[in-house]
Amino acid sequence: VARALRDHESFLQVVIRGFLPGSLICHGDVVFQHPAPTSLEVLEALALSVGPNKTLAGSDFQVDPYSLAVGEATLEPPPAEPGFPEYGVAIVVVCGLCIITAPIALLVGLTSKRLSWWDMAVLWERRDPEAGTQSLEMDNPGFW
User: Fold this and answer.
1) Could you list the residue ranges that cross the membrane (predicted)?
2) 35: which of 59, 82, 130, 134 is 20 to 30 A away, CA to CA?
């Protein structure tokens, strides 16, 4: 903390009063000369000292800049951008696959002999070839 605030002309020292049990939250006091910066200015200096790898002022302590609080001043995280929900992506993918596979399955089914339209038409129009003809049974096999 002292490294992060050393650029302020009025900064004197940091006094850590204690750590909360089971966590890495500390309470302390930052001492400045007159004119002291506001809580928001101190908070901004601390937040700006957090590097891209989330370490505080080049130390080994990783800090979430939105967890810093100086007095009553805290930083608000940026609002989350509205995005497309994950279940929406899954629905789009499944519908896309159905749209692609349905015509392929239909074409494969129609080109096979079992599901051909011509075979179905023949099955539907099948008539008895002997319907309407008279059949005579003859007992004389030589007459055949």
Assistant:
1) 87-110
2) 59
Alpha-carbon gap, residue 96 to 25, rounded angstroms:
50
User: How many Cβ atoms from other residues are within 10 Å of residue 44's Cβ?
Assistant: 16
Say whether 11 sits in a helix, a strand or coil: strand
**pTM exceeds 0.85:** no
Does the bond joining 35 to the residue before it have cis omega, within 30 degrees of 0? yes
β-partners of residue 74 are 69
Question: Domain locations in the chain?
Answer: 2-74, 79-126
- CA dist., res. 110 & res. 61, Å (int): 68
Let me know how long the chain is.
144
The single-letter code of the amino acid at 27 is H
Structure-block tokens of residue 126: 């099948």
